[in-house]
Design brief:
- The chain is of the alpha+beta class.
Amino acid sequence: MRPFGDATRRNIEAACASFARLPDEAAPSALKRAAVVLALTEANDGDDTAFLLTKRASSLRAHRGQWALPGGRCDAGETPVEAALRELDEELALKLSADAVLGLLDDYPTRSGYLITPVVVWAADSAAIRPNPDEVASVHRIGLDTIERDEAFDFTAIPESARRVIRFHHQMSLIHAPTAALIYQFREVLAGRQTRVTELEQPVFAWK
């Protein structure tokens, strides 16, 4: 149990500070920059700490109906942190300033041509969350104890790749990379482990 409060915020911020991100590539990347948010808030029971996970609207052009962390493509001249905070506001009407940021995880390159930066933020007041129906079908609070269970993640093989496919088991659903990989790395950061996830594979349906 990680009670939602200042002590947990300090502990998670310290864990993020102790995590050594992979260095940015020196050469310009052909991948488009994007950012997602691991927004930490109160769990449904009001005691534990949770993060926000969305189900994407069925009307979206790409990845409709899939589980995802809030986020999207970086606008021109925008940093990943700025993009993450803007997307959080646009998708969930959750306005946070830069001082809510606790840390960054490793950039994750996707098969569809994006380089995703995960931004960990502390959402102290999430009572005003209002999902944007054009982008978000539903929003869910996933308790941190859920992702810390041994059986929360598994790895499987596919004939199309030599890399392992990671899967997060959630409410009878399988959530795949990139979302599963980013949540898994956050779980490892909470445990004080320097675990890399850039080589964890996505399922073939997510390659486009």
